[in-house]
Structure formats: C-alpha cells, structure tokens
Amino acid sequence: MVSLKKYIEVSPSLICADLCNLEQEVNTLQKAGMRSLHVDIIDPHFSPSMPIGLSSVEQLKAKSSMDFDVHIMSTDNEFFIKKLVKIKPASIIFHYESGIHVEKMLQLIKEADIKAGIALNPATPLDVLEYVVEACDYVLLMLINPGYADGKNERMVPYALEKIHHCKEFLKCHNSKAKIIVDGRVSLESIPKLLNAGADVLVAGSKSVFRKENSYAANYQQVNEIVNNFFKGGKHDEL
Asked: 69, 137, 183, 200: which is the annotated catalytic residue?
C-alpha cells in the first residue's frame, strides 16, 4: 500500500477498472506508483454485483507485485477465506453482517499469516467489534450500501463522517492499532473531510483514481497532492 504522511494509504478499487483488460489495467496502476489493489469478491446473495472471481484474482496476483487487499462481500465467508488463504493476498476483510463465526474467521486468516479485517455496512454499529477488535488489522467502513457504486445518484450516507470519527475514538479506547479503511464514493472533494474524521486508507474509485478526465497517474498524483496539502494546512474542525 502507498504510504503518505501519517501513513495514509491509497488503494485503487479493481471493480472500477476495465474488466475486459484487467492485466493491462493492473500494470498501468502499478506503473503510476500505486502499490496496493482493493479487490472486491462478491456473491449475488450479498450484493447484486459480482464482477471478479477467485481464478481472476489468482491469475492477476501471479502477474503483479502489487499488494492484493481482498474485501469479501458474501453470505459464505468461510468458503472464500479458505480459498483466498491459498492465494496469499496481503489482507482479507470480511463482513460482520454475514459472519456467524466471526472469531473463527479471523483466526483462519491470521493463522495463514495474512492481515485480517472486518467490514461494516453503513448502518451496522461499531460496538459489534467489542470482543474481536484486538484481532483486527483493519476496520473497513462502507460509506455507501455495497454493490450499488454504479448508481449515478448514490452518495455517501449522511452519517459517514460521524461514523469514521466514532470508529477512531472506539479504536483508541480499545488500544487498537487497526487502520480505518473507507470505501464508497471517495472523491477528490471529500478526501480532506475523510482524513479529518480519521480515515487511514482511502479506497479510490470512479470519483478519484478512475476519473475519466485524466490518466490514472495524473489522478493519483492529484490525490497525493490533496493528502499532502491537508496535512500541511492542518486539520479541519468541522466534520
């Protein structure tokens, strides 16, 4: 993952790439300076979109030196986790909402020497992490409802910044070093507010790295400039 000031990470979302030319797209992202890739593995029971399969992830990883950070959106976490640990991505994150045996799933990932995390849908409260946060390297906060990113009118939930801020406080209270990943409609305009609220990892999609106006490299440079300018100028007080 790309490390900026205060270890802010920028991870382009593979789901936003040209799915007919994935190898070329991944190479382009890597050449632009990006070191990690946010990979969504989705089944149709959890979300209406299911663009990338396990075999595609395995083949792409074999042809790339980027870190693959996998976000499972499925009603069967155990099936995908057991498959993914053989592929050895940098991290595996699964949804609490579909996790019957959350502790066991975290153990499966950690035993494979892979970083682990839990994802929360917008309306899922933070206190569900009370007893498992110690095992988490990441907490992924969905800022939109999963699977509807292509909706033209889809916006961040109105309480997105508040939830990020509360998550930061929650992690501090539990002496957790877990990083907060924010996913969904991360735009050039929203990045300063997301950083101010406490985000550590920005999942970059159609509103940032994959903006059609410029190349991936130019978009990525602009994201870096926004992040650096944010820290140079000091934090905003308003969430």
From this structure: 183
